[in-house]
Amino acid sequence: MPELGKYATEVMAAYGASLLLLAGLVLLTLRKGRRARAELAKIEAQRRG
Amino acid sequence: MSLWEYANPVKFLGLSARVQPYLWAAAAICVVVGLTWGFFATPDDYRQGSTVKIIYLHVPAALMAINAWFMMLVTSLIWLIRRHHVSALAAKAAAPVGLTMTLIALVTGAIWGQPMWGTWWAWDPRLTSFLILFLFYLGYIALWEAVEDPDTAADLTSVLCLVGSVFAILSRYAVNFWNQGLHQGTSVPVATGGRTVADVFWYPLLISMVGFGLLFLSLVLYRTGTEIRLRRTRALLARSRKDV
Prior knowledge:
The structure holds two protein chains of two kinds.
Chain A: H1 8-48
Chain B: H1 9-41, H2 55-82, H3 85-117, H4 125-146, H5 150-177, H6 199-243
């Protein structure tokens, strides 16, 4: 861990908030994508069947 | 072969599926290397102390916040002129990514501003235009959700995107023509090629900027694929209802 001195709280807060937002965006994107793929596959299967 | 071939959703999805694994991998490597290098292996600035480490998040996020809007502007214009659905869906897909980048830029800027400027927020030209850009992102996403017919939604959001572009331009260039406010000039002037950042900070910053750019591209390609599938699902459901 680097020595962050008197600004440790600010630096950690900036990294924490940003990584949380990025991780949230990626996870929501992947979840929505998986759902859309499954839904389309289901409807296409119904139409074929 | 023409670029317009990829206006065909099947061709777009095929190309997107081929390039995405490489893009995601490159994005992950660059983001992790850039941020790890910046956080662990760069010295403190003689005036800013360790808060200088915030630039590895703030600058790439701000850059992508503006570039995302420009990408949406281009794809919106393609929709308005050529009526390619994939381009309208790409603009829709990019908006939440741009919104998140804008939010990261605003939050990290406020966290940096408190110890350096003595305030979380100032009504400075660049900060204010960035806040308005954030509101435009929210409005753009809300408009897509509010209008039921997808083509009408694409038309209206494209016009909103044209209007919002004024603030995207202001966000980038406000510091050049408004010689007031707290925000310093750009650290990486694209037009002149000059920079005011020392090498020791510049290289991890550059890698981080490339990483955020690749992450944006990966997310937008993936999300555009999702939007294409959702549109196809809606079309099939509508056809099924007609058949019954």
